[in-house]
Automatic annotation (TrEMBL):
All copies of domain J, residue ranges: 35-99
Name this protein carries in UniProt: DnaJ domain-containing protein
PANTHER family to which the protein is assigned, alphabetical: J DOMAIN-CONTAINING PROTEIN SPF31
Pfam families attached to this UniProt entry: DnaJ (PF00226)
Region (Disordered): 146-215
SUPFAM superfamilies: Chaperone J-domain
Source species taxonomy: Eukaryota, Fungi, Fungi incertae sedis, Zoopagomycota, Kickxellomycotina
Biased segments, Basic and acidic residues type: 146-180
InterPro entries linked: DnaJ_domain, J_dom_sf
Segments crossing the lipid bilayer: none
Name of the coding gene: spf31
Organism: Coemansia aciculifera
């Protein structure tokens, strides 16, 4: 059974649509997560309306239910994060501020007036480099803070261990107090008995010596 021209057109259209979906998934995944503008494919001058429209169109195109691409879900989630970031006024302003900083630094490096698409691409790359450096420094500070906290925690644990030892020693000393007192009393009683016996023997010896002298 031969297919009609309309069927062929429909099949070709479906294939073209699937190809477009897969290409868009690949495009989104190749964009840096540091640049939500590129992920959504919108200019830096975009409005919230532009952002919403771009997200709606692209999310329909790469939705995991609409394409068999193995990484469609990853691309869809990345697209959603980009939309969320750019719809946040503070976040968008922060990104644009860093973009402007990258533009100033790059303009000083290029030292020329002619700045076209090549310059704009270089600005984005410069922005990414700045953000990577900021993130690296942030992680280094965090590691240092965690190391300090770990050292302080270890020091506090050692101090707590010493306090526990002293407390246990004091308790053991207090618990043995009655035994020490009893032992001391026994010692004192024994010493008194020996002294009395010795004194009695000494008196007898003296009396015997005196009697012998009278004879």
């Amino acid at each position: 059974m031969t297919e009609s021209p309309s069927d062929v057109d429909r099949i070709l259209q479906l294939e073209a649509t699937q190809l477009s979906r897969q290409r868009e998934v690949d495009r989104v995944l190749t964009q840096s997560v540091l640049d939500p503008f590129s992920i959504l494919g919108v200019p830096h001058t975009c409005t919230p309306t532009d952002i919403k429209l771009a997200y709606r169109n692209k999310s329909r195109l790469i939705h995991p239910d609409k394409t068999a691409h193995a990484q469609a879900r990853d691309a869809f989630e990345r697209l959603k994060r980009a939309e969320t970031e750019l719809m946040d006024d503070d976040k968008r302003k922060s990104i644009l501020t860093m973009m402007q900083e990258a533009r100033r630094e790059l303009a000083a490096e290029w030292k020329r007036e002619e700045k076209g698409e090549e310059f704009e691409r270089a600005v984005v790359e410069k922005y990414k480099a700045i953000m990577v450096d900021i993130e690296w420094r942030k992680r280094q500070r965090l590691k240092q803070e965690l190391a300090k906290e770990g050292a302080a925690s270890a020091k506090e644990e050692e101090a707590a261990k010493e306090r526990r030892k002293r407390k246990e020693a004091d308790k053991a000393w207090e618990d043995s107090r009655d035994q020490r007192v009893s032992s001391w009393r026994d010692f004192q009683a024994g010493s008194s008995g020996k002294k009395s016996k010795k004194d009695g023997q000494s008196k007898k010896a003296k009396l015997a010596a005196a009697a012998a002298a009278k004879k």
